[in-house]
Amino acid sequence: MGIHILNLKNKKKNMMKVIIRQSLLLALLLMLATVAMDIQAHAQRVLAKSLILYEGESKVIKVPDVERISVGKSELVSTTLLKNGEIVLTAEGAGETNMQVWFNDGRREILSLIIVSSDGWREAYEIKELLKDVQGIKVTTLGRRVVIDGELKLRDLDRVNILKERYSDILVLARTITTDQEVLEIKSLLKGIAGIKISVIDQQVVVDGNLQNRDLERIKLLQERYPNILVLAREITAFEEKMIYFDVRVTEFSKDYTENIGINWQKSFGGPIVNLAKNVLHAGNATPDFSGSSTVAAFDNFQTATSASAAYFGIATEITSIINLLEQSGAALTLAHPRLSARSGGSANLTVGGEVPVVTSSINGSSVEYKDFGILLKIEPTLDTYNNITARVDIAISQLDLANAVNGQPAFKKRSTVNDVKLKPGETLVLSGLITREEQKTSSNVKWLSDIPILGHLFRSKSFVEGETEMVIFITPTILENLDEGINQQEIAKAAKMIELFDSEKLYDLMD
Question: Cα 189 from chain centroid?
């Protein structure tokens, strides 16, 4: 009995071994069959897995035993199956798609198609040939794109821009630089345009300032030739093109009137409140604030201003008649009555005096520079949409100081103010106290200073030297709405009217 049980156990073990061996053999056979099928499949594949075409390119593939073909996106690639088994592919547009091919034996293969817009390697060669004489750049390919790197001169930029229109896959990384010769050319072409400033910043030409419309069109045309020009200039609007006329009156005024000028004029006619934001000596800003309500609050401000050696205040009145009245009574004298004009955003300059030669020596020899002296006036007006005039008024009194001359070269005494003011048309800005009492006495001892226009009269005046009078400058702006009817035409019309009136009175006297 025990022997029989032992035999059964041995039989079971042997059977298990046989089963395991058979299973391993079967798995091995299946693996070999799979590998064989893969090898056979690869050996029998006719088409490549992918194909790159360039837009517009036509390519022929020879494939035997083809039954039919199909393309996923026919708008990208058109296909034709010829009787001899050739497939004609024509790339119509850039993109990606695939083509399925069925064979007579039932097999099917898929070909991935990639259509690009250009042939980077071919284009790189063409671009290199076209730009071979351009120095400072390097042409390479990155994937399907052509890259231009390095430094590109402004005169060569046009050629690259033309190539970019022809070859769409060009990537320009080159930095554009401007040569000194090109800067000179640009400055020469823009020389006749007023109100602009030309500078070079980091190899780029920058045009800043104010431009009229006709000049802006001219610069746009220049940008087509020199694309590296950066235009920051602002176009002048219609109201900024208006002309502003300045009636300037330089007078010698009795101090009895200048010290009470605010009180007397305020009693005579209504005016605005005059507030001085800051009293400035030598340089600074004084900004009158005209609220147009009352004149009572103006007295304290006038005291503050006139206590210093320079005072500035605005008056919204017609003052010419009062100045004329003071002249008739001997309390005032007009030394000069110039008239200036400036475009809004421009400047008007007045120099009343002279020039003195100053010799300077250097290693290259001696040179002569002429220095201005006298009254130097500069006005930079700006007009807003409400016809308010904001002006920067820069006035200086420059005098020769022979007492401090060095090696025979005269020194200069200069007193100047820079004022930012806001006026209505017809309002008057008054400047006084620009010459001190000490300067009056010192300058009166220099004989030839009496020959200087305006200042010469002051230094000859005993009242001025003794401090009884002082120089007062009146500036009254007017807007010229119609340039065809400017100040000159108005003066001519006024003169004609006076002649007509004179003739009529003369005729009336003859009739009597």
Answer: 18
Cα separation, 396 vs 410, in Å, equals: 18
pLDDT tens sequence across 278-307: 333 333 333 333 333 333 333 333 333 333
- pLDDT (0 to 100) of residue 219: 79
Q: Which residues pair with 412 in a beta bridge?
A: 400
Query: Within this chain, do residues 383 and 345 fall inside the same structural domain, yes or no?
Result: yes
pLDDT in tens, 391-415: 898 888 877 777 677 777 777 777 7
At residue 373, what is the residue type?
A: F
pTM: 0.41
Does 276 map to a domain? no
* Closest C-alpha among 475, 477, 476, 471 to residue 251: 471
Residues 130 and 219 in one domain: no
Range of the domain at 91: 50-116
The two structure tokens encoding residue 320: 């010419």
SS (H, E, C) 324-372: HHHHHCCCEEEEECCEEEEECCCCEEEEEEEEEEEEEEECCEEEEEEEE
Q: pLDDT band at 191, cuts 50/70/90?
A: confident
CATH number, domain with residue 223:
3.30.1340
Torsion, Cα 220 225 226 229, to 10 degrees, reads 0
Q: Which two tokens stand for residue 500?
A: 């007509």
The CA–CA distances, whole Å, from 301 to 40, 65, 146, 273, 417 equal 108, 108, 72, 10, 18
Q: Is 497 a member of any domain? A: no
